[in-house]
Design brief:
With about 450 residues, the protein is an alpha/beta fold. The chain folds into 3 domains: about 5-90, NAD(P)-binding Rossmann-like Domain (Rossmann fold); about 95-300, 3-Layer(aba) Sandwich (UDP-N-acetylmuramoyl-L-alanine:D-glutamate ligase), CATH 3.40.1190.10; about 310-440, Mur ligase, C-terminal domain (Protein-Tyrosine Phosphatase, Chain A), CATH 3.90.190.20. It has helices at about 10-20, 35-45, 55-60, 75-85, 90-95, 115-125, 140-145, 160-165, 190-200, 215-225, 275-290, 295-300, 330-340, 360-365, 380-385, 400-410, 430-440; strands at about 5, 25-30, 50, 65-70, 90, 105-110, 130-135, 150-155, 170-175, 210-215, 230-235, 245-250, 250-255, 260-265, 310-315, 320-325, 345-350, 370-375, 390-395, 415. The strands form 4 sheets. It has a 6-stranded parallel sheet, with helices on one face. A 6-stranded mixed sheet has the order 15-16-20-17-18-19, with helices on both faces. The longest helix has 16 residues, at about 275-290.
């Protein structure tokens, strides 16, 4: 019997363990941290052996195969030992793909992944396809494959997940954009991060499709320098294309073989340049999979976005509170600030992933009246913006950040939580940070 060791007992780890057991592996799960109660119950229910707050080498180094959760860096001591021992390490995405014949739609990009994946899933589901949504959001791919659930999967894929694939192949692959992020994980080498993103198309054939932003310089440069096998389906908000998606007379046009007009952009449920691009990517997928134009139009009109991404929480004393906790990098916060139409009290900070805040300066100058720092180390933020904003306040809890924002804001202002940083210094994750923000606002 083949022995599968799963490193990390989060969503992808537990999903892989269940799938491994179903496929006849002897499974052992090891987590260096604490395992959440809900996951413990699942492992016990499936009679899978596990450990927490430890990696027992004698139980790990005798594996035939190791599934490493995407959050565990390649430099972790146990991973180094596995590599030295010549034991095969795969990602959950790769492992799950071995056991399904389903059609795979993979979506990556520095920003907009969750919105686009969720929107794509809605379009396909409304169009009558048997489809699941997972990967970097919601359910693990492996867990869904273990349930034998779907004929099509829409998967949000992070660069960390793509780092660990070998044969995994998307029938339709999407890259939304590429800007510097997670550089701490790639030794501050942007080209390695770009290469990780482009792994999404590495196993595609001439029968497969690649959807990408033709306005993105990094993507265009890579495509100019590299041959690809799949059929290109670009989208653009600045130019008319021979095929793909573009804007003409304020309408969203998609052209595969002959021209199709989808809808006026003014009626999209989510507004803003980046959301128009997300809608273009999602509706190109839907068009390739033969979803009716009327269904696409209706779904795009009704889509209200995802939690923690420019989510309107409440209006109090005519001040709007917006939760953009999912903005874990500078570029995502750039979108958020860019979409602000009123004087803004900006809550920012957390674990800095090698951020360069300089590109935000013009927007902060124009839109931000006060900055509230929410992190353990705020020096970089204060240094960057201290001279262009009159009020900068440091806080160390969400409750106090929201109370300060309440005091500093006036009628007609917006209070925006858009941290531009990871959340691990004060919160479990960006969801926890966003929920604490919403709770603090509701308790004002």
């Amino acid at each position: 019997m083949q022995r599968l060791v799963v490193l990390g007992a989060g969503e992808s780890g537990v999903g892989s363990a269940i799938l491994g057991k179903k496929e006849g592996f002897e499974v052992f799960v090891s987590d260096f941290g604490k395992v959440k109660e809900t996951y413990k119950e699942v492992l016990i229910h499936h009679e899978i052996e596990w450990e927490e707050e430890n990696h027992s080498e004698e139980k790990i180094l005798n594996a035939n195969l190791v599934m490493k959760s995407p959050g565990i860096p390649d430099k972790a001591p146990i991973v180094t030992k596995l590599v030295k021992a010549g034991i095969k390490i795969v990602s959950e995405i790769e492992f799950a793909a071995w056991f399904t014949e389903a059609q795979l739609i993979g979506i990556t990009g520095t920003n907009g992944k969750t919105t686009t994946a969720t929107l794509t899933y809605e379009l396909l589901k409304q169009g009558g396809l048997n489809v699941g949504l997972g990967g970097n959001i919601g359910k693990s791919f492996a867990g869904m494959v273990a349930d034998n659930a779907f004929e099509n999967y829409v998967l949000e894929l992070s660069s960390f997940q793509l780092d660990g694939i070998e044969k995994y192949r998307n029938h339709i692959a999407v890259i939304l954009n590429i800007v510097p992020d997670h550089l701490d994980r790639y030794d501050n080498d942007f080209s390695r991060y770009v290469a990780a993103k482009f792994r999404i198309i590495m196993n595609q054939s001439e029968q497969d499709y690649f959807i990408y932003d033709a306005d993105d310089e990094v993507i265009s440069r890579w495509l100019a320098a590299n041959e690809i096998r799949s059929q290109k389906m670009p989208f653009s908000v600045t130019k008319k294309l021979e095929k793909g998606a573009w804007i003409e007379n304020e309408k969203l046009i998609i052209k595969l073989n002959n021209k199709e007009e989808i809808m006026p952009i003014a009626t999209l449920g989510l507004q803003g340049q980046h959301n128009i691009k997300n809608a273009m990517a999602a509706s190109t997928v839907a068009t390739l999979l033969k979803i009716r134009k009327a269904t696409i139009r209706e779904s795009l009109e009704n889509f209200q976005g995802v939690e923690h991404r420019l989510e309107r929480v409440l209006k109090i004393n005519n001040v709007l509170y917006i939760n953009d906790s999912k903005a874990t990098n500078v570029n995502a916060t750039f979108y958020a600030l860019d979409s602000m139409e009123t004087p803004t009290v900006w809550i920012v900070g957390g674990v800095d992933k090698g951020n360069d805040y300089a590109e935000l300066l013009p927007l902060v100058n124009e839109k931000v009246k006060a900055i509230i720092c929410l992190g353990i180390d705020n020096d970089k933020i204060i240094e960057q913006f201290g001279s262009c904003v009159d009020i900068v306040v440091e806080t160390d809890s969400m409750k106090s950040a929201v109370q300060v924002a309440y005091r500093l804001s006036e009628k007609g202002d917006t209070v925006l939580l858009s941290p531009a940083c990871a959340s691990f210094d004060l919160f479990k994750n960006y969801e926890d940070r966003g929920r604490q923000f919403k709770e603090a606002v509701r308790n004002l």
